[in-house]
Each structure stands twice: as structure tokens, then as C-alpha cells.
Amino acid sequence: MNRLVVVANRVPDPAARGATAGGLAVALQDALTRREAVWFGWSGRIAEATGGEPAETRIGRIAYTTLDLGREDHRRYYAGFSNASLWPTLHYRLGLAQFDRQDYAGYRAVNAAFADALAPRLRPDDTVWVHDFHLFPMAAELRRRGCGQRIGFFLHVPFPPAALFCALPRAEELLADLAGYDVIGLQTEDDVTNLRAALIGIGQPEAAARVAAFPIGIEAEPFAALAVKALEKRETERFRLSLVERALIIGVDRLDYTKGLPQRFCGYGQLLARFKAHRSKVTYLQVAPVSRGDVAEYRTLRRELDEWVGRINGQHAEPDWAPLRYMTRAVARPVLAGFMRMARVGLVTPLRDGMNLVAKEYVAAQDPEDPGVLVLSRFAGAVAQLPGALLVNPLDPDEIAEALDQALRMPREERQQRWQDCAVSVFRDGARAWCRDFLAALEGANDTAAEEPVR
Ligand code: ADQ
């Protein structure tokens, strides 16, 4: 079998296994172990200058090949254009997007440096799979260096309507670069519609025909097993005792403005204010590890959330009850899975989300006999696979409060039915299937791809 080359901003630390492994590493695990593979990208280290000889660590059949980034390049490419321009734009938040020509130049320079290092290492029959918005221009850069391999792209985040995306300076250049890919994968049909329209708008109907939806999933069975096993852990037992039989609501997100956390906290405050029966009967745990502390918006959000927590606990707490427990550090997956299983409600209310794997993990973690209820934003890509969730508009705190009330009072039979409706896709359409479907489309892609949509 030919080699698979995965290109992503971050290459997982080959030493980090299980608990600390990131989402993409878990999703690709299967594909990466079944054939010879290269994982190529940034090392996570900052050097004087970008480039130099890439470092290579081999584990089994996987070669982890990484490049250091210069301080200035990193700042402009990562904190700058990727996180302060593209991230807000792709999440429909044009008002938060900043544009700086030098950031954009840094973004292109890092993509070019990646291509310089990768092109000479590619074999003619390699399959190359590029991930996410940090690397839109990657295929175009590789093509400029004479690479004729099959190159696919998967965007993990949403793609907004064309008019919105095209308001970002240089958007058309980025779109034109997408034409270098053989397959362009997105999370939802809405994303596909949007990107196709944008590509047609710049006169690239052939590229538009190569866009298709590949909704990402999780490996649900191992996660469910983790959740059951977690109940034996001392950490989980201590947490359960600390709840003194109060119903648990759980939220798990990176601390990011797309996740709708202030609105969610406000909605929980409304629950306590409007539906008094739940007072002192419910505890909400929000786990939100800090991310991207080098972007100003994230620091502002953190302060805002600190205020919300103080306000809600100050207003509603009793000497023996803190309604909201909030932590800004990560919790190890095996423990988190147990917390999810214990929770009567999974509260997932992003303002926009490509997919949202936490929603799927919450479903996987439930006890089918006595499952909890998923309260889910209608703007998460995962909505399409989770018909049993209680849907909310995450911008409406009253709607969040009403859904929480409904979830907390829901009879067991209805909870079972709703869980069943969600579990079908969560257990069937896993990460492996996602990976297999994408690679099948990419490796089956041929010259007729221009005439026919991939699937
Ligand atoms: P993220 O924005 O990071 O991912 P999400 O899909 O919800 O969002 O989470 C990714 C993983 O991180 C999940 O496995 C989750 O359990 C873990 N995680 C999140 N918060 C955690 C915490 N507090 N402690 C421990 N683990 C935590 C991007 C896109 C999403 C898309 C994914 C995958 O923004 O829309 O679903 O990529 O394509």
C-alpha cells in the first residue's frame, strides 16, 4: 500500500499517548497504523528562524517530521492570520476579525516553508492529506514545486456564506489556492453549499465539484468503555460524593469565543432565577482549558467568564451549595468520560462549530438504561447526526434556561428514546469511518472528478 502523508499545523508529540492525545491524532490513529505514514508539520518549538533540517522521529511505521518556526513567522502565521483573521471569519464573526498584510505574508511564508521541506521528501505515489485552515495554500505551494501527487484537504471548522468569507482581504487568493486539491472535505452540507458558491464566484467550477461533506465522528465504543471504567476511579467517586445527589450539568470546551460560554452562563443564571425548583438541586461543572492566550480576544473572554462565575455563585450560592463549578485546566479524558456519564445534562452551546465532538462524546458516555439529555446549539455541525438532542439558539439565554428545565425534568422513557436517536449515528459513523471515507474519495479521485461530485 502506498504511503499516507498527513500535513497539519501541529504534529502530535509521539511520546504523548492516550489521555493527552489530541482529537485529530485519535481520529487518524487507525489509518496511520495500517500503512506507512508520515506526519508532517510544526514541532511546537519556536526557533530564531523558520526552516533548517526537519527533525524526524520514527515510531513503528510512522515518521513524525517536524519543522521549527521562527518567532516572528509564528506570531504572524499562527496568532496573526490563522487565529485572528481566519478563525473568526470562518466562524461567522467578521466583527472580531483583524487583518494585517504582514500577518498574511507570514502565513504564506510558513506555508511555503512547509512545502519547501515537504516536496523533496514526497514519493510519486504518496497520498497527501492536509488539515485545516492554517494550510489553505499548501497544495498550491506543493504544485508550484512540481508535486503531482493526490492531495486532499479537510477543513475542521465551518465555511461561512461566500459574501461573508469574501469580506476578508485576500479571500479570493485563498479560494483560488484550494483549486490545487483533488478533494476538499467539509463537515456539513451547509458548509459545502457555501464553499461551492464561493468557488463558483471566483470562476472555479471544477474546484467546486471536488467539494464534499465528510462529517467527523468519534470512536464511540472505546469512549463508552472509558466512561464505564471511570466510575471505578477514586477521582470520579470523590466528585460524585461532592455532588450530594444533586443533578449534574456538564460543559466541556476549549476556552474560545465561538463556544458561547458567556451566553451559556447567563442561561444557567436564568434557570436558577426563573425555575426556582432547581435551586440547590443542581450543580453545573464547566471545564474550559485556556487556549490561545496570545490572542487578545481570548484574554478578554477569560476575564468576562471570571465575572460571570462570580456573579452567578455570588447571587445564588448557599453556604452548602455552589451552583457553578468552573475550571480552566484540562481534565484527562478517562476522568472526563466518567464525569460525562454521571451528568444528567450535557450542555453544548457553541455560537458556531464545525462539528463539536464533545456532543458526540457525551452521547457515547451515557448509560443506555438511564441516559442524560444533550442540550445542543442549532449552530453546531453535529446537529445533523444528533436528532434526539434538545436544540437551542445559543444566543438566547432564556431558551437555554427552558431547555435545561425540560432536560432536568424529562422522564426516563423520553430520555431513552432521545438518546437512542442520537446513539445510532454516534456509534455507527466513527472516526475510522470518517477517515476511510475521505481517503476512499481522495484515492478514487481521478480526472473525471472535475465533472462529477465526489459523493
Ligand atoms: P475543537 O474546537 O477543539 O475542534 P471539539 O470538537 O468539541 O472542538 O473538541 C475536540 C476534542 O477536545 C474533544 O475530544 C474534547 O473531548 C477535547 N476537549 C475539549 N475540551 C476539553 C477539556 N476541557 N478537557 C479535556 N479535553 C477537552 C475543531 C473544530 C470542531 C471539530 C473538531 C474536529 O472546532 O468543530 O469538531 O475540530 O474536527
TrEMBL record:
Gene3D superfamilies reported in the protein's UniProt record: Glycogen Phosphorylase B
Highest taxon in the source lineage: Bacteria
SUPFAM superfamilies for this protein: UDP-Glycosyltransferase/glycogen phosphorylase (SSF53756)
Pfam families found in the cross-reference section: Glyco_transf_20 (PF00982)
Regions annotated as coiled coil: none
Signal peptide: none
CDD domains cross-referenced by the UniProt entry: GT20_TPS
Family: Belongs to the glycosyltransferase 20 family.
UniProt protein name: Trehalose-6-phosphate synthase
Organism: Paracraurococcus ruber
Source taxonomy: Bacteria, Pseudomonadati, Pseudomonadota, Alphaproteobacteria, Acetobacterales
